[in-house]
Amino acid sequence: MERKRPNLIVDAFIEKDGKFLAIKRSSAVEVGSWETPGGRVDVGERVEDALVREMEEETGLKVRIKRFLGWGEGFDCPHQDGYLCQRFVLYFLCDVASGELKIDPGEALEYKWVTPEEFKKLEPLSKPIKDFFDKNVL
To answer: Distance (Å, rounded) from C-alpha 100 to C-alpha 82?
Structure first.
């Protein structure tokens, strides 16, 4: 299988009442795996701007970035177009500034609000978030 160059992704642990938004992927990479909402950083785009944009596109929420949490890597992540990709994901803690949750069905099959302990037990986890949990305490 062909391999593509690494993708820089930004994801948000959106916090609400001590729980975090988990989504089950419906598109492109690692379909059916659980992770946080997020997306690719565009060329010339600041990481923070990409995160705010992606959250609004995927969830309908305007978020406030509280702090950087860490990163996770996923090697040989299967893509629906038949190649393997490498994902490098930067994770940020965020809260909701405004908006109502509206999950894009093109991005997520389902979603739920979970504690960190519940999140770690979701099956299957995406490779980058599993790597993040393996080396970080949330």
So the answer is: 35
